# Entry
Amino acid sequence: LGDFLRSRHDEILARWEREVSRMRPARFLSRPALLDHIPDFLRQLSDYVTATRDKVAAVPPQEFPIVHAVERLEVGYDLDEVVAEYAILRECLTTLAYSERAPALVSGELPVLHRAIDQAIAASVERYSRTRERTLKALDRISTAALGVHEIEAFLPRTLSALLETTPSIDSASILVIQDDRLHVKAAAGNALQPGASPSLARGECLSGYV
# Structure
């Protein structure tokens, strides 16, 4: 089965791409964004099946499904659409094996394959749900921080506090506001430069000015 997945890698991907391109959010993605980490996941899947056959200790691939779930959330996929991508991948490789009457169709490694795909789906669902919940909490806190605040100088620090409280991967942040055609730090949290602690930036100067 692992050999089949490797030798038919491109064809399985082509079938998968053709099917998922019909999904609602996929229609707006470029080809690289559509494929995302699926080719890497398929390669890891074949390696995992082979390792199991050879009785080599291996862990089912979950790293790419976790990253894939977060990136799909960012481009507007619903959770059921993320799950559907893996269901389509499973169907593409099994129907290809069936159409060719490949020995892989009756391989004793099939349960290993299905278990690995199921675990990839579980990892994707868990990360998607957790990230979406964190995002909604951040938006809710930012909205709450804005209530009753009429001055931007008072609102910006509250916005950054809400961001840091709900996004563990961020430990510092700053907000720069354009005044007199230059960027000035108006709010900061964590280890970022505090207002007045750094010179202003011109547009196009360093990364912040370029953005």
